[in-house]
Here is the input.
Amino acid sequence: MWRHEAIVWGALLLQGPVLDNDYVTVHRNAAPCAPAASGCGDRVIVALAAVDFEGARMERGDVRVFDAAESYSAPSGGDFVEVALKLDRPPVRTTAETIVPPNYNVTHHEGERFRVIEGRLRPGDTRDRHTHNQRLIVYLNAARLRQFPDGEPERSTRFIADDIRFAEPTTHELVNVGDVPVRNIVIELKP
Here is the structure.
């Protein structure tokens, strides 16, 4: 049994991160930061499909947050991402002002170093002018937005389902110009 676990663990470590920068490391369908002794900071598991996790079922878009001292087992049975926040990250870049929009749907976690929010926006709906610090975004739906960033030209953006991006601070307004709802998980860093 120990040999099998070592082989599985080794295979997970061979899968490199899908995103790695000074702030976060993201793995898809692997959880190398699951042990508390892994040297990782806080971790966020985002289900990209139905998965079995810690004796419960997570559905697409469900989120679980773990601090650096907590261990867990890797989800099984479907796709997921593990987001590990780095302990020694540089200072988080922010906007000059903070404007939280009144229409965020769900706050999954509000902590000292980061928050996890779920953004949803129906076709034709607008998200009023608001700000973001640096953040990681997990796009759950393929969708189209028109963005109106402060001091920049308007732009159209297409999101790909299951894409993962790290974004810099912004102040903007959004309109869903597609025919499906926007749905994403945002892990916004705090200074």
Notes: Residues 17 and 27 are 5 Å apart (CA to CA).
